[in-house]
């Protein structure tokens, strides 16, 4: 899990020493397949192996870090709901077409709902290329560069949202009952592993899978698709040129997450975009007609429930590890 693999370290430089380095710490013993010899380092109670770190310590560290993040995520969610903001966390591997889909979506929403405020938080390790593309559509965007980090977290989103140009109207909203509804897209760093565990305060995670990636992705990266409320199967215009089994992909996704919704589209040609736009309207609870009704709590229930279950499992495993240690 990303919270203990070192991807979000403090950026300390590695120094060279003239003396012999200490022996490298050994990772936890993997589970070995007796027939093939394949190694599974995620079979322990912590579901991850870190050199020099016990499973008990890994569980404790992950629990502490996710707990701190989730407290801020809850604050984000309350703030979004109080001010009529539907926030969606777009997750995928690099190159799935997230930014292209966002640009096409923003342009379509201009025609479909001219009064709807749409803004974007863009996550990448470096550059502002994607935010620049979003700004070219006329929508406000804030680029968040994570450096060595491989995902956005709740504090980053809170900071970025506060800096969005559209946020100026939100300050006044603290003094009255409601305001016009708006849509916030959070385009996470391209990564199918780490963003799965990090709640940003979103109403839902949307996993985008392009047909160029292969239909087995939901089984290879199950945590992400288990946490997602919707899977968008993108770049369908390329299907005639690929050996991609759409039904097999859908079967794999529903094997991991039986309740996941699935939309097939091409952000380039526009095929299937109506279904995506309708899904967005439903996610906003019909508030594009300025009903000012809050988004139903179920819109974020799946994501939050997955995280709560993971934290509960970690706490139970930590208690079991303590008990085993005491018995020994």
Automatic annotation (TrEMBL):
One of its GO terms (biological process) is protein maturation. Residues 89-263 form the CobW/HypB/UreG nucleotide-binding domain. One of its GO terms (molecular function) is GTPase activity. The keyword Nucleotide-binding applies. It comes from the Bacteria. Keywords: GTP-binding, Hydrolase, Metal-binding, Nickel, Nucleotide-binding, Zinc. InterPro entries: CobW/HypB/UreG_nucleotide-bd (IPR003495), Hyd_mat_HypB (IPR004392), P-loop_NTPase (IPR027417). Belongs to the SIMIBI class G3E GTPase family. HypB/HupM subfamily. This is Hydrogenase maturation factor HypB. It comes from Polaromonas naphthalenivorans (strain CJ2).
